[in-house]
Amino acid sequence: MTTATSTLTPHQYLEAQVRWRTIEIVFWLAALLPFVVTPSYLVLASQIAITALFALSLDLILGYAGIVSLGHAAFFGFGAYTAGIVSKWGWGEPLTGLLLAGIAAGLLGYLLSFVIARFRHLALIMITLGFGLLLLEAANSASWLTGGADGLQGVHMWPLLGYFQFDLWGITSYWYALIILFLFFLVSRRLINSPFGLALRGIRENAVRMRAIGAESRPHIRKIYTIAAFMAGVAGAILTQTTETVSLGVLDFQRSADILVILILGGTGRLYGGLIGAIIYLIARDQFSGINPQYWYFPIGVLLIVVVLFLPNGILGGLSEIVYSARGQRWLGWLTQPPRRGKRL
Amino acid sequence: MSTPVLATRGLDKSFGSLVVARNIEIALPQGVRYALIGPNGAGKTTLINLMTGMLRPDAGQIMLGDADITALGPEERVRRGLVRTFQINSLFPHLNPLEAVTLVICERDKIARTFWRTTADYRAAIDEASSILNSLMLGPVCYRETRHLAYGQQRLLEIALALATKPKVLLLDEPAAGVPREESPELFTAINSLSQDITILFIEHDMELVFRLASRIIVMVGGAILLEGTPPEIAADPRVREVYLGGAQHG
Known about the structure:
The complex is a heterodimer.
Chain A: H1 2-5, H2 10-18, H3 22-30, H4 33-36, H5 42-64, H6 73-88, H7 94-116, H8 121-141, H9 143-146, H10 171-192, H11 195-205, H12 207-212, H13 217-243, H14 253-266, H15 272-291, H16 297-310, H17 314-324, H18 326-332
Helix pairs in contact in A: 5-10, 5-13, 5-14, 5-15, 6-7, 6-13, 7-13, 10-13, 11-13, 14-15, 14-17, 15-17, 17-18
Chain B: E1 6-15, E2 18-28, E3 33-37, H1 44-52, E4 59-64, E5 67-68, H2 74-79, E6 82-84, H3 97-108, H4 123-135, H5 151-164, E7 169-173, H6 184-192, E8 199-203, H7 207-213, E9 216-221, E10 224-229, H8 231-236, H9 238-245, H10 247-250
Parallel strand pairs in B: 3-8, 3-9, 6-7, 7-8
Antiparallel strand pairs in B: 1-2, 1-4, 4-5, 9-10
Helix pairs in contact in B: 3-4, 3-5, 4-5
């Protein structure tokens, strides 16, 4: 990489960081493939897109700002219930429902961020874990509002934009989830390439030094935590809207743990890590549970151990090491470059 | 004489029964290069920690210009121009020097909160970062991740980060500590060519560096200031020879 970049001026170098690479364009075009290649798997594809958005929101706080969380499902679930309850009360318009769910989860995240910004590492794990369990119990006991253990009944969504009905095959669902995911991906991509994104990485790398250069970390942490909570809430809302039901599972500890596993599997601090992790995890779960419905966690466990042992930076970290090696650059370098003008893909 | 840029009045600090600072009185005029020397455990780093707000004094005052900064936190002191480097590198391992210095400039100019524009859009900040890096001979390695830099280059990056805050007073805690012999001339040149507007106080054990760089020297022993003077005065003082340089005679 050094040989390729050493001739650039600092401006060119930083501008090159922002530019779209060929592999990214390939990735997003490939996201359209399920429509034609595996049309019977569109429901799974929309689950993947929702999980990917959820993982992306966790990556912003964990991968970029270094804030550990074992209770991220709190915001996912809060968004899911908000979207469900809004619809149950008679407002089934999807986009405004999505926005309301995002705002509700974002507000919750903003309030919690004042506590989060004061702690790091192990203390954060305990706080986020505790908060997640607290919210789960609250939802369980407030059954007049949430339906408790029976789940929220009576969620009904109006057609998207007044025209596209959510269908059984998941065509509308996948379009919907994929477009929302892509929009939030664009926002996240812009965010991490901004001065704010740079400051977040500074906090992750050395919070003590941030003080010694005159920077206050806490306002940054509060801001990114709120944004991440908003995104997680939107992800939860899409799940509610596309399945027209909400169960306590959206707030479960298992969901917080799964999303952490997905992100670590894919690779933290790379934006695409959560997306790749979601794809691999959910497809693996789908396949393994088809083979053996009872013990499908076993191969997942093996997969996780293998990845952590041999690819400490996740699947994407391992791949990028191969691609950025001297030989990798010779064969695959074009993938990591912006597509050349005039040259057809 | 004009007001000193940085001054301490009757600074005291102890950890339990161990006194680490006893009635410290220092006044640094603008643009002067001060060396702070003394045997291990004399309280040199403690004094820097007190001045930068990492530690709270038990008694006394710290003045930056005319302002009493004793009660301010470390971040606020940095924003007012009192900046330090660390004896043990405290850097951002996975950022490259260009990103790290740009980060400092963005924080200083209050643009680190914007997330809708890319860093590349802030051309002035990037120009400033690369000119600081070039002045410290870090230009050629500015895209290499900090953790992969040579140790001497990391020491220079410590100084680069501090310079990017536009300091009035720079406190260097053993800038040459651990730097291999062949890399130390670069470090000397870098420190020697820092702007004369910046007041510098540095701790250093390498006496050659101290006598070449410092215009005045403060000697600390046992948490108190023994004396202050020009390099020739310090070199000639029998008390200094006894407590500090004296080891050679007895050895």
